Amino acid sequence: MREEDLEIAIKVVIVGNGAVGKSSMIQRYCKGTFTKDYKKTIGVDFLERQIECDGEEVRLMLWDTAGQEEFDAITKAYYRGAQACVLAFSTTDRDSFEAIQSWKKKVEDECGEIPTVLVQNKIDLLEQTVVDPEEVDLLARALGCRLMHTSVKEDVNVNAVFRFLTSRCLIEMRREEEEYMGNNVLHPLTICAFGPPTHNNKGLNGNGTIVLRSGKTKNRKKKNLLKNTCRLL
Ligand SMILES: Nc1nc2c(ncn2[C@@H]2O[C@H](COP(=O)(O)OP(=O)(O)OP(=O)(O)O)[C@@H](O)[C@H]2O)c(=O)[nH]1
């Protein structure tokens, strides 16, 4: 297998209060459909879509998590290993806006800092808005996140959200790869396939066996983008 045959897979979690449009966003993006019916997500759901971004084939694995607090214990486990995050709230639901900080914290507790977009959904209902654009801007700045306005119903900006996150992840991956290569240290999640390892660190056995190294990184908070990616040396 050649390196270029390996695809990059990125796990994205979509979080936010119930009924802000998380499931709808994923359905829209992966299936191109929208339904007016509300069926609350029980626990977690999952869909994926393959895209080309910045010259790379990328498989996006989109994890739709329940917004209802009763499912918190279940959903938390699914945040683990996420490499990007959508923090969603609704234009017509004040509580969902006010809950954003706590959603960010929940994800950060499991994943550290990962590329994140703050999404104000349902902008087709702007005349019923319960949030002030300035406070939304301020929140985005305070969280250090890009802010995007979407209408899943009218298919506004949904693609842009996932494209932005993918692009950010790819930049981070390249940066980390260069950093590890520059330090002459093997990548934290590396498959050494049938070749002599460059040094005999834990997990490498020197006889050409395929070894999947653990995802330990120097700084878990910042360097967890590559947890789920594998590369062939
Ligand atoms: N007007 C409008 N309605 C939307 C939009 N996006 C979603 N909805 C509606 O909002 C309701 C809730 O959407 P869901 O996607 O089920 O919400 P959710 O965030 O996944 O909810 P949980 O599963 O409970 O966490 C549904 O009736 C959708 O049709 C939008 O952009 N505009």
TrEMBL record:
Cofactor(s) recorded for this entry are: Mg(2+)
Compartment annotation: Cell membrane; Cytoplasmic vesicle membrane; Cytoplasmic vesicle, Autophagosome; Cytoplasmic vesicle, Phagosome membrane
GO function terms (MF aspect): G protein activity; GTP binding; metal ion binding
Q: Per the UniProt record, which EC number(s) apply here?
A: 3.6.5.2
Tell me what organism the protein belongs to: Apolygus lucorum
- Mind giving the lineage of the organism this protein is from? Eukaryota, Metazoa, Ecdysozoa, Arthropoda, Hexapoda
Pfam families in the record, alphabetically?
Ras
Q: Report the sequence similarity comment from the record.
A: Belongs to the small GTPase superfamily. Rab family.
Give the keywords, sorted. Answer: Cell membrane, Cytoplasm, Cytoplasmic vesicle, Developmental protein, Endosome, GTP-binding, Hydrolase, Lipoprotein, Magnesium, Membrane, Metal-binding, Methylation, Nucleotide-binding, Phosphoprotein, Prenylation, Protein transport, Transport
Spell out the reaction equation it catalyses.
Answer: GTP + H2O = GDP + phosphate + H(+)
Could you give the subunit structure recorded for this chain? Interacts with SUFU.
Q: Which InterPro entries match?
A: P-loop_NTPase (IPR027417), Rab (IPR050227), Rab23 (IPR034114), Small_GTP-bd (IPR005225), Small_GTPase (IPR001806)
Which terms in the GO cellular component ontology are assigned?
autophagosome; endosome membrane; phagocytic vesicle membrane; plasma membrane
Q: Does the keyword Cytoplasm apply?
A: yes
Know the name of this protein? Ras-related protein Rab-23
Q: How does it sit in the membrane?
A: Lipid-anchor
**One GO BP annotation here?**
protein transport
